[in-house]
Amino acid sequence: MIPQEQFNKELELIIANAIREDVGEGDHTSLSCIPEEATGKAKLLVKDEGIIAGVAFAKQVFAYVDKDLKVETLINDGEKVKYGDIVFYVSGKSQSILQAERLVLNAMQRMSAIATKTAYFMGLLEGTKTKVLDTRKTTPGIRALEKWAVKIGGGENHRFALYDMVMIKDNHIDFAGGITQAITKTKAYLAEKNLDIKIIVEARNLDEIKEILSNEGVYRILIDNFNYDDTRKAVALIGDQCLTESSGGINEKTIRKYAECGVDFISSGALTHSVYNLDLSLKAVE
Fold it and tell me: Which domains does the chain have, with CATH numbers?
């Protein structure tokens, strides 16, 4: 994962771009029918069940739109919520609350859905050593939010992007002329550029596992699209030489069985690309 300072900059970019996209030259509806000096209060109402995520982000959005908006938090990120719960109250200028409303809801609904699914997957792995990882299969432009939601749900973040970890996959291997060639070239490149980043290598079969292990400096082996028997064999072959990760179409019906094969991590794109938003509303309080 990228450093916190860089992550914070990603969040700032997301907020600035989203407000630019949504508000533009002005919220003409609010400007036309609500006096500039009018103040009000609204509540974030839950109309679903799951894990809430995005409370801290909502506070950042409100502060960006209007530093004088006040947020009273009743439920924090990572806590379970049910229908009828109130997560927070926000008070201040009515126009400011309305400008921030859609971004807050869009972000929190999606983040909560991701956190809820991640927590569900983690529950399926209870009693094993295996942790759930996200992937780069995220919504363009809001990756930081989606990966943050995975953490809130109890999962772990894989690499953030192409620049913070080396991941040698099948196409890299084929284009480079083989596994050993790809690893050798990668280590030479990292040394030349003075880069201290980890190397993951994907294996398509047990023979490739053996070849990867014949090279030093690999942090984790991606055991991709293996069946259960071959996954167990791969884990036995690798031992404690490096970490292990299973991936490839793993879902709620199969994740436990792969964990029981002994892998350290299971990566799932479904955490971020196949979720249904949690139903939340921002309602004015009279």
Answer: 4-116+276-285 (3.90.1170.20), 122-271 (3.20.20.70)
